[in-house]
User: Which sequence fits this backbone?
């Protein structure tokens, strides 16, 4: 074996002893933990370490992680704060960073709200369901107030009713109650539901 290859092998063994399962005792006495090379979330699943503390990101590393998170998907402001706080050293730094990202439009509750509205409508969800989901993400429903107002929820409810129960207007109280419960569960208002289940195909 050449000296170069032998040297690489020694380096590998050294790293293995430092960071692997082979020498837990040495890592207990070493308080300086290596910074995460990639995604700090990986540290949560690192069973080779007995130190389960968060990585403690700050400065440029915290900023880089925030951008990495936002490239994966849109986050509501409150969600992003809690996400970054899982790995950040200082919550106040996170709050300042997220405010900056919002000002620069890298993060936008408006975009999250509009995306959610479009997605939930495609899934056949009514306004009450959508408002509840926005509230859970701590997003102000006023951001999409116009879009909610302009949507023809009666048409949405009718199409959903037809897809599930057909175009016939039932006179059976039990079936009518079942249709009402179905549309209420989907998040539609009662007056919208009544219009939908009583609407005839030629109306």
Assistant:
């Amino acid at each position: 074996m050449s000296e170069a290859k032998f040297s690489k092998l020694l380096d590998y063994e050294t790293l293995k002893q430092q960071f692997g399962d082979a020498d837990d005792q040495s890592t207990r006495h070493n308080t300086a933990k290596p910074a995460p090379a990639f995604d700090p979330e990986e540290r949560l699943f690192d069973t080779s370490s007995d130190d389960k503390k968060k990585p403690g990101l700050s400065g440029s590393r915290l900023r880089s992680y925030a951008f990495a998170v936002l490239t994966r998907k849109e986050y509501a402001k409150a969600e992003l704060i809690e996400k970054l706080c899982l790995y950040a050293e200082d919550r106040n730094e996170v709050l300042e960073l997220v405010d900056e990202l919002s000002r620069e439009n890298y993060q936008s509750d408006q975009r999250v709200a509009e995306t959610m509205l479009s997605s939930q409508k495609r899934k056949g969800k009514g306004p009450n369901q959508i408002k509840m989901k926005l509230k859970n993400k701590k997003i102000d429903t006023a951001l999409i107030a116009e879009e909610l107002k302009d949507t023809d929820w009666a048409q949405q409810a009718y199409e959903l009713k037809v897809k599930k129960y057909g175009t016939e207007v039932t006179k059976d109280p039990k079936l009518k109650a079942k249709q009402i419960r179905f549309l209420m569960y989907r998040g539609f208002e009662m007056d919208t539901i009544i219009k939908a289940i009583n609407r005839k195909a030629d109306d």
In short: The radius of gyration is 27 Å. Residues 3-19 form the longest helix (17 residues). The chain is about 60% helix and 0% strand. Residues 180 and 193 are 6 Å apart (CA to CA).
